[in-house]
Amino acid sequence: MIETYQAILLAILQGLTEFLPISSSAHLVIPSLVLGWPDQGLAFDVAVHVGTLSAVLFYYRADLARMARSWISSIAGAPADDDSLLVWYLALATLPAVSVGFFAGDYIESDLRNLPVIATTTLVFGVLLGIADRRVAKPGREQITLGLALLVGLAQAIAPVPGVSRSGITITAALLLGMSRHAAARFSFLLSIPVIAGAGVLKGWELAGSGTGVDWLMLAMAALVSGITAYLCIAIFLRLLDRIGLMPFVYYRVVLAAVLYGLWLA
Fold it and tell me: What is the maximal distance between C-alpha atoms in the chain?
């Protein structure tokens, strides 16, 4: 069982790293290795997933409401528009990640969650993010197409590998396909909604079947802290994106990879 201060720090880490292109798995492995913290447990994972999902839902609440109305209208026979099509694109783009999770999830969890893998993916996909940011189109494409959504979805399929970063790989793919930074980030964050929701439901199902007792007060606190942190992270990231670009995150990933390699060698 983790202590309260550990839960708070881990919830902050989760909230920050869920949406920044720096990999949550690379960060969450450090406290256990360096500080000897115990595993946070399945219930804690469910709680922080609820928090980060709530953050992105609240941030895009107006967009999501408009998309839902448009999609329902199109199902009822109204002409499809950009919002209703975007709902279908998000659903289709999620399928590759769902397939990888279903068929390879156990292998990834048992054989790839280690320091050399996380350090290498942190470095390689950080450099790839830097290449994409250097080649960003001006002006970039703002409109999402079916082909673009599917290609970004295929890129997201490798995100379960620790160290890749779901937001990092989807933003990288979108930029390489000619999207603007803001359009790439928005699509990445919207695409996170079904993925985070699916992971939360799956972990919740496992938790319900485990019969494990939970500390509801600590879990509520973790969900709240991760949610607030994630919301602020999204808002600040999008506000500063065009001003600072993505290179600060690239440099950070290179340094983090060096730290992880050092931990592995030590």
Answer: 63
Report which secondary-structure segment, H or E, holds 69.
Answer: helix 61-75
Going by C-beta distance under 8 Å and a sequence separation of 6 or more, which residues neighbour residue 176? 132, 135
- pLDDT 10s digits, 93-133: 999 999 998 888 889 888 888 889 999 999 999 999 999 99
User: Can you tell me which residue has the tokens 């060096």?
Assistant: 258
Q: How far apart are CA 144 and CA 171, in angstroms?
A: 13
Q: 22, exposed or middle or buried, with CB in 10 Å at 0-12, 13-18, 19+?
A: buried
- Measured on CA atoms in the order 93, 99, 101, 104, is the torsion positive or negative? negative
3-state secondary structure of 179: strand
Question: Quick one: pLDDT band at residue 222, thresholds 50, 70, 90?
Answer: very high
Answer for the pair 254, 127: CB distance below 8 angstroms, yes or no: yes
Which H/E stretch holds residue 7? helix 4-17
pLDDT per position as a tens digit, 21-74:
998 877 877 787 777 787 777 778 888 888 999 999 999 999 999 999 999 999
d(C-alpha 197, C-alpha 199), whole Å: 6
